[in-house]
């Protein structure tokens, strides 16, 4: 059982999700989580959080239903220069940022162009996690990206929604395996993420957990149960 899930989405992310942050926290508490991160999509996603929403997040309660709450954002990469869809002012007041590519915001280029986009984006000090970069629609050079992540103090996620059957990112297993191999090679931690849109799958790592165990990835490099280390990592800018 893992104790934290920091890639989750509330009603502010759109996508038909109707769950409030309180709904998410209550579900996370019932499942035994100790730390929940709310990372709603940036304003570039249709019907997602506005700038005013992200401006208000630092004033929200830090504890709900007995568990600690962090407030972040899943940023959209907009171009190969690594521009994103939230201002520095707002980013710097959030607990962390996940950086991701989504087809409605970023037009996939060559392997080198996509890799360059990720590398430029993770240079922002608020960015701590590479979101679902196993997506087959955005091919990257994982060796180059892993070295950049190590340099910039950013980690990869292993995304439950990517590995679940029928995912819209294609068959991501080979990419996820490559990520885990390189993370072990460079002793780079990972985080398992549910990517839950709503409360149903909060803290659900069914396929991600099975995958990392099949590949014998060391638990010492999985941050989900290392809460003090995870909090320090997210706070380090």
UniProtKB/TrEMBL annotation:
Q: Which Pfam families match?
A: PHP
Give the organism, scientific name.
Blautia wexlerae
**InterPro entries with a match to the protein in the record:** PHP_dom, PHP_phosphatase, Pol/His_phosphatase_N, Pol/histidinol_Pase-like
Quote the gene name from the UniProt entry: ycdX_2
The record's GO molecular-function terms, alphabetically, read: phosphoric ester hydrolase activity; zinc ion binding
Quote the protein name from its UniProt record: Probable phosphatase YcdX
Q: Which GO terms describe its cellular component?
A: cytosol
Q: Boundaries of each Polymerase/histidinol phosphatase N-terminal domain copy?
A: 4-79
Give its E.C. classification number.
3.1.3.-
Claim: Hydrolase is one of the keywords in the record: yes
